[in-house]
Amino acid sequence: MILEFTFTSANTAPYYQWDPISQSVSINSVITYTLPPIIDADGDPVTVAAVFPTAEGFVTYDVPTRTLRAAPNSCGQVGGHKVFTILSDGLVFQILSLMITVTNSIPTLISPPQNQIAPMFQVTTYTLPARYDPEGMLVALYTHQSNNSFYLPNFMSVSGFTYTMSPTTADQVGTYTIYAKTFDCNQGANSAYSFTVTVMAGGAYFDLPLVNQQVYTLHSVSYTLPTITDPYGLAVSLTHDGPSAYVTYNSGAFTINPMSAANVGTHTVTIVLNNGILTSQFKFDIIIKLNTLPSLSSTLPAYSMITDAQVDTISTAIVYRTGPSAVSFLTPTIDPRKYNVKALLITQVGNYEFDLILSDGYEQIVKTLEVEIYNLAPEFDSALTPDNIIVHLNSVATVNPLPLRHDPEGMPFTTKFLTLYNITNTWAGLPSCFSFDGLQSQMTVRPIQFALTGIWKIQMILDDYDLQTKYEFQVTIVNTEPYFISAPENKTLQILQELNYTLPLQLDNESHSIQTLLFLGKNNESLPSFMKASPNGDYIIISPSLKSHAGTYMIFVYLTDSQLASKYNFTITINFPSSQLLSLLNIGAPAFVKGIDDIELLGGVEDGTIVLPPITDPDSDSVTTIINIGSALPFVTVSPNKNELYVKPDYGSAGTYTISITLQDGNEYFPKKTVYYVKIKINSIDDPFLVDLKNQTQLELEQKAKECKAAVKRVIYNQRQPNPKIKQLQFKLKSIDLEKGVLIVSFLPKIKELMGQLNEDNTRIYLNRSNGLDERLSWTLDSLDTLQMKITVKFEELETISQSQDLDAIHFVVMENLCYTSPISGVFNYIREKQYARLYIPPHMNSGKNSQNNRQYRRKMVYREK
User: Fold this and answer.
1) Is residue 77 part of a domain?
2) Compositional bias (Basic residues) at which positions (predicted)?
């Protein structure tokens, strides 16, 4: 059978508070991204590294701030790049990734290309519209003919973004579709455009393109055609078709004279040029629009222009509908379409209606119009920059120039000033600290009193006795608190030293007198008696002399100008004297006249007394004896006059203990002292026969203890061997796997420190059944894995364990210094961690008149309060 013990040590990997977010950045741009906060469930320090194998050229990682920075600048960086982040706490790590995608926009033309005509025997050039690339990349052009051809027609060439067309043969006549594709990084990712190039036949042609004509009804327009050229120098005849009712042709010019609304619309005129061999055809459009009536260019604010869409000669007449037949401010000019409006008095402000008759010689219209005379308020021409003027107390600030101002009509106006103080919150005149020059172009501020501090909203009011215009700016009068030119420094000294600490230089921006106040702690207590501040508080004298003066003192300093105060703090640390000084101070300390011997006893069997030697003190001071026993030694007591220690260990007191004894004189400041250490060693004896203590009377327990003590003494005196140290560990049953022969138990306390020491020589294993009987097992250590905290034990008595259906627990008894060939007689063994006692009965107690009682309680474990 195999016994397995499994110890699990878990450490979780650190992780982000949320997953990293993938990022996108365009070429010639920069982004930064800070990785999310990191969580480590075990509280271990975490390091973060970043690896970006495909983005080394443009991605960087800042370790202290955990910030990624991407700055792509080339076409080869376009696409997705994976960034791997590695989180490690030194034991385990985790890799998380995010994607940085570099994008690139396709360049475009700012407008579509225009179709082109390339006459035979002429050189024609055409430049594509301007290009635009969002990333500012260099734009390239890929151009070709349609029908999946990769080349341009043989009469075309391109340089940069300019095409040159030179057709010279008849087979080149026709229309070609040309594709122009703009790209920057990848020729396959482009913006595609197309336009046509039409090669005209080798007949006569116009030197310039024909121009469409726009004509209004009732109007007449003459259109002279461009010069006609024949490539062969032949005579050319011209014919045309079109709306003959109002279009006539004579000697290279068309006359267009539509007379009615029925002519409105777009009409195409086709011209045919014939040189006797070839004919060429050209077209232009005549756009007829309805004649519009004369109109005013706008309503009449002060005056208005009278206009006509056809620019005809306009005649006007005015008939007043309101007001007098003649208005003094409205007069005609030489141009009948213009009238002057000039009002000079505030009393002329108002609205005036009249009928305006407009005629262009063809038609007329009557409009009822209004002349409005109004007054414009005075205006500011400029503003203050900044519009918040900061002025310190006891200083002079000049605002020059104040905002310039004027009146649009040239009317006289006045400038007034009001202020809104943030404390009174009412508008009033300016206080005396504000003054102006004679032209009110400059303002001077001279604040002195503390009461003037605050925000003053200044209002400039322009008034032309009809309208007002206001402009606001702000004057802030400030007082700043006094300050040190550098922060006070923390100071450290020893008791019996003296320090004269001068505080840093004090300054006040407004040149106020400064008062320095010093306090101890946040509650502004007075300085301790050994700290003395100078009358003006610029230095402190520190003279600690007592042990009670040791410690760290937080000193608060307030600098005040009677209105504001600044607060600083620094620490004064007073240490005990150095070891060298203390050694000198400790010369002549009290001492015992001789040393104190250590003591070794058998727990529950032997008692002892430690007698302290007489005390001597060179200075004849009173001497105090301080004995430090501690709560772990309840079996040690001190005599009333502190000259003896009584040691009465029980069976559970095994171990080695140290007691400190301090002799100290009565010096008030630095008492001299000497420390002694006494070692107490308590031995114990163990036996594998276990007897239950439960439900025993006190008399029965005392009787058994006496029997055990007697038996132990006999064994010790006879064998005169050292006592073994015994460690006991109790394990509770978890499960039994009979097929595999493995017994799995849970344990308490941990036995990690014993794992490498277990063997059959120094460890005994017992089965404890519910019926009270124990069975000792033979076993071997099958395997030992200290990393996994796993122990596998193989038992020989597989049948014995398989029948242990009433198994309660397993006992391990590990003996570190095994010296005996036979079991040692019984003793009480006290286990501190569990607060219970075990009574081991020696073999000789299994016979005689007590043998029946002993068997009744044998091998039962019980918990008993100490």
Assistant:
1) yes
2) 856-866
